[in-house]
Design a protein that fits this description.
Layout lengths: L16 H12 L8 H6 L1 H4 L11 H14 L4 E5 L6 H7 L3 E2 L8 E5 L10
Antiparallel strand pairs: 1-3, 2-3
């Protein structure tokens, strides 16, 4: 049954390109304006994110869903990185991510999927 307040997921389409570019720019500049759109589109290491940005406001739901799918797919862990001070770090901690031991980069986090003690998102 459809609930008006439930998030919906659908496949991305070419019509989503403008919002994906804008969301990527906003995510990169979360604390201050460090990058321009030209920087994002001109740097392959940043440009690839323009197709991988979740729907605004529902990232916790989407990340929880991705964790469930990954766990069901028998993956051992999920890793990600977050800059110091980024408010998203609190979400990652609530979902059970911890500092990755022996990580080459500061801010690298890991969620071991065989550890079912992680607190689910409320």
């Amino acid at each position: 049954m459809f609930r008006r307040d439930s998030p919906m997921m659908r496949a991305l389409s070419p019509m989503d390109s403008p919002i994906l570019r804008e969301a990527t720019l906003l995510n990169l500049n979360w604390g201050e304006g460090r990058f321009s759109m030209a920087d994002v589109l001109g740097e392959p290491g940043l440009a690839h994110y323009t197709g991988l940005v979740p729907e605004r406001g529902d990232f916790g739901y989407l990340l929880s869903h991705a964790i469930d799918v990954s766990r069901a797919g028998s993956l051992g862990a999920i890793t990600l990185s977050v800059e110091d001070g980024n408010p998203a770090g609190r979400l990652y901690q609530r979902l059970g991510f911890i500092a990755a031991p022996e990580a080459p980069l500061e801010g690298a986090l890991i969620l071991r999927l065989d550890d079912h003690t992680a607190t689910p998102l409320a």
